[in-house]
Amino acid sequence: MKRLAALFAVLDGTTKTSAKLSALTAHFRAAPEADILWTVALLSGRRPRRAVTTTELRTWAAEAAGLPDWLFEESYAVVGDLAETIALVLPPPSATAASAGLAETMASLSDLAHQPPEARKAAILAAWATMPADERFLFNKLITGGFRMGVAQGLMTRALAEATGQDAAAVAHRLMGDWTPVAITLADLLAPTAGGGSRPYPFALASGLEAAPDSLGDPADWRAEWKWDGIRGQIVARPGAFAVWSRGEELITDRFPEFAPLARALPPGTVLDGEILAWGEGAAPLPFAALQRRIGRKSVPRKVLAEAPARFLAYDLMEADGRDIRAVPFAERRDRLEALVAGLPPGVPIAVSPLVALTGWETLARTREAARDRGAEGLMLKRAASPYFTGRRRGDWWKWKLDPYTVDAVMIYAQAGHGRRAALYTDFTFAIRAGNDLLPFAKAYSGLTDAEFAEVTRWVKAHTLERFGPVRRVVPELVFELAFEGIQESPRHKSGIALRFPRILRWRRDKTVAEIDTLDSLRALLPPRAER
């Protein structure tokens, strides 16, 4: 843990990419192999099942520190991070012991999952008693599963590639898929897999278009297609392997049984990138809410399968006949994708995401305005000559989304944030007018500057009407403009509606609570019932 603590100190103490890259590369060159595997796993989002509950940790830490529960909770509210709070309140170590490595620590935590509460408590207290504060903090992070180092996965991949003398793109590919650090060696993890198995490729990601589209140059150099609102995924069909992967590297094959016929229909050695959508009888996809009913389920009921059948709209062809063709220009990959899908048997749940005519930027802008009528969020713009790159690379792929919906609402509840914003009220509940009443309908916690959050915090403290634990009910006076991507009916909410991705657009200091929007004005944005 000492080595990991030293790495964390460097990464946490700088914002320079070069310094982080250097520290990670040095760590990968010097650390034991088992620790390297765990570091890579943690930095790429792979975490073991939590062995100890946060309630147990809070109780044990308060006891060890000799604090009443209320004082520990007040401390937690100020610090905003449980791992850091525990590290700060615990007494100094009562003994010293040799620092365990990361892999050894993770193995110990894994063993605790099968122990009774008394044994788990004894082990955690013993570990705390011999660790300095910096190692305690990281130890607590590992227990709670909230392990982050402020390092993008792409940077970690570059560092590992430099440390092992391999190509960064190849390393990024080999780190994809389903693997665990306790069941693989570093050599096997980084070795090319014969036939690729079911391993997906790293996704290419688009950046938001910030300037006018005509800044991109000649329209003939670009291709346009609809930006769909579903689940980004890859279908991998190789000899002896068929898999459906989400962008978060989650294996979701079993959740979409409709795609099983593609295992036989697709030519062996095919990997497709595309969007998973719920699609009914019409020409447009069903709203994301229909697909959302299937997300997170290990087993999808027949009723849901019938009401929200899935379709795969393919964007790109990354592997054909077992050969990686990501370096081939997009226009050529697209032609090969269309030919491949056209040759599939009728009835399979796959289609190519249609191209949108691009004869000029002004004409395309008018076409974009009809995106919502097609169930899309806007347009994607891809350079015809672009390769299929890894991660987010500005210049070749752009997303040109529609402007979001907006609504003016009043804040009625406020709650403190976490981490560096633990002393600020940043999480708000908003209401709109329903007749003569104020009806809560949305929560949001992003969109203001730090200075604005500080100003709102001072106002909240001076205008609190009631307290409910960490939540304060406030005078309904501050009006904010919220942005959101979609709206749907929801019987689970008192308002009867739910917003998609609500966030604060701006503080409307010029408006009073009498001028906020109404439930009727929001319901007018709902799609026609036949489309819901």
Description of the molecule:
- Its EC number is 6.5.1.1.
- There is one protein chain.
- The chain has 532 residues and is α+β, with helices and mostly antiparallel strands.
- Helices cover 34% and strands 23% of the residues.
- The strands form 5 sheets. Strands 14, 15, 16, 17, 18, 19 and 22 form a 7-stranded antiparallel β-sheet that branches. Strands 4, 5, 6, 7, 8 and 9 form a 6-stranded mixed β-sheet that branches.
- The radius of gyration is 26 Å and the shape is globular.
- The N and C termini lie far apart (52 Å).
The portion of residues assigned to helices is 25-40%
Number of strands: 22
Q: Which CATH class of the largest domain applies here? A: Alpha Beta
Average pLDDT across residues?
Answer: 89
**Overall SS class:** alpha+beta
Radius of gyration, whole Å: 26 Å
The fold-level CATH name of the largest domain is: D-amino Acid Aminotransferase, Chain A, domain 1
Overall tally of domains: 3
- Count helical runs: 19
Give the CATH superfamily of the largest domain: DNA ligase/mRNA capping enzyme
What is the percentage of strand-forming residues? 15-25%
Largest sheet: 7 strands, antiparallel
CATH architecture annotation name of the largest domain? 2-Layer Sandwich
